[in-house]
Amino acid sequence: MKKIILSLSIILFGFCASAQYSYNKVITTENVELSYKWRNTKLFDTSSPLDLALKLKNSNDSAVMVNFSVQYYMDGILDGTTQIDDFCIKKNRTARGEYNGLILKSEGKTEEVVTSEGFKLEFSDLNIRKVASCESKN
């Protein structure tokens, strides 16, 4: 009985914990969905700076090459820009996180900063083109 209760508790805790860190959908265009979430640079250290984790989902029947830029604004003033160039996603695949190179360093931004009213995150210059195949690990 203790094993069942322990197992159910672990499963329930996992669902609760993962719900807090879901991706925020930005846009879906040409069957490619762009999403993001903020995550701490150090696991289980909520006071550590945040990184921007991106997720790209390709629902096309062919690989696509994606280009876009991310701008960080603080009180209406551009605080930083990151450009993603020629990121290839295989057909009907999702690319996300560190393994795929989709973690952007935010230069010390904290949760307090990114949740403040003055902070704004923008994605622009989204360009998607179909390609025959990907030659990278994506």
Task: Walk me through the topology.
Layout: H1 2-19, E1 24-29, E2 32-40, E3 50-58, E4 63-74, E5 77-89, E6 94-96, E7 103-105, H2 111-114, E8 119-131
Antiparallel strand pairs: 1-2, 2-3, 3-6, 3-7, 4-5, 4-8
Short description:
This protein is α+β, with helices and mostly antiparallel strands.
Task: Describe the protein in words.
The chain starts with a helix and ends in a 7-residue tail after the last strand. Strands 1, 2, 3, 6 and 7 form a five-stranded antiparallel beta sheet that branches. Strands 5-4-8 form a three-stranded antiparallel beta sheet, with no helix packed on it. The longest helix has 18 residues, at 2-19. It is built from two helices and eight strands, in the order αβββββββαβ. Residues 15-20 have low confidence and may be disordered. It has 138 residues and is of the alpha+beta class.
